[in-house]
Amino acid sequence: MSIPYKRLNGAALVTGAGSGIGQAVSIAMAAAGISTIFITDINSAGLDSTASAITSLGLLSTPHIIRIPGDISSPEFIASLFGQLPSLDYAVNCAGVSGQVAPTAEVSLEDFDRLNGVNYRGLWMCVKEELKLMLRNDIKPYHSFTTSREESLVRGQRGAIVNIASQLGLVGKTQAAIYTASKAAVLSLTRSDAIDYSKPPHHIRINSVCPGVIATPMTTSGEKGASEKLKAAIKMAPMARIGLASEIADAAVWLCSGESSFVTGTGLVVDGGYVIN
């Protein structure tokens, strides 16, 4: 892995970092140059695996890795988690769960609360605390190539937040109403927070990524890998292949970096073209 310059600097938090997209984002953030990375997941063993993957990259400067296992749907854990973060420059909120595969009339209240406790309420609690930390930061000028000092100041930011939503926050899917609604809520939260915090004096950009069908333990953990329904969804996308977690991670790093300094409130669709077909 090679990078032309240090795209990120400072401290980052990645939730859901124990596997799949969250693990890939953590690795990509480390490769992009951050100095400290806080990783959290309900799966403690997964955090160990992520930390090992980062240290095995052979980077010139490996970031300081702080593993904090826990459940982001718990307000008590949120208080503990953010009590351990002295500062924060970037956050990528990847933690998410899938719901009961059933139409609304057959979904239990318990499953609705479990799913939204992580996908929406838990993410919202994280964003709330991430914003508080970032508002303490000075505005950092854009540190890569610009034609003038003035341009680097215009492109500066106090921080950047990326929320992992889904292509299913934009379109419907049979027997998945509570999941699609939770991801639509993430997109709406992102847009409204971007209005409130991107402008002066705050200068915090907030964006979402909307992955398509991505090869993760959530999608390929069955005995035969991807299910027939999943294969049908893959074929619907013009690119006709499953996406890679690293492709979502690259999008998240770009949205954190100063290279996307005029991008805020967006839901960047990374789905092989699924939603256009």
From TrEMBL:
One of its GO terms (molecular function) is oxidoreductase activity. CDD domains: SDR_c. The keyword DNA-binding does not apply. Keywords: NADP, Oxidoreductase. The keyword NADP applies. InterPro entries: NAD(P)-bd_dom_sf, SDR_fam. This is Oxidoreductase. It comes from Pleomassaria siparia CBS 279.74. The lineage of its organism: Eukaryota, Fungi, Dikarya, Ascomycota, Pezizomycotina.
